[in-house]
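Annex B. Sample input.
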Amino acid sequence: MAAAGASGPASGPAWDLIELLFFAYRDFVGDADAVLAEFGFGRAHHRVLHFVHRNPGIKVADLLDILKITKQSLGRVLKQLVDEGYVIQKEGEIDRRQRLLHVTGKGRELALKLANLQTERIARALADAGPQVRESACGFLSAMVDADSRDQVLRMIAR
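Annex B, continued. Sample output.
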């Protein structure tokens, strides 16, 4: 598939890539959305659960920085996850004002269920696309991240 506008903005919008990203994202999160709906959760809950699961003991401030959302938005979602037993908050050992977040066993189970659904979709796509596509996809998606945060993102996901 030729990428319209792939040579740069001067040749016009890259409609095919823009729309493929929209549709790929729709279906990628759609698998998890169906499971989340059973719990009365949405995509914001998924993002919080994902990053708390992947970063045990993460500070609320660091989670806000990753998600690029307001404290108020996080507060609503986090309260529901805590109230329903998916996430716990602990005081920092050195600074008791810090709130460190951890998933519970129930939270871990849900996070893994959602990650496995998304991994299945990724595995199917990689199998259909061919053997060298994973490295190219990683390079492309990395390049889509703002340059000023790219190194930080790559370090975070390299664990």
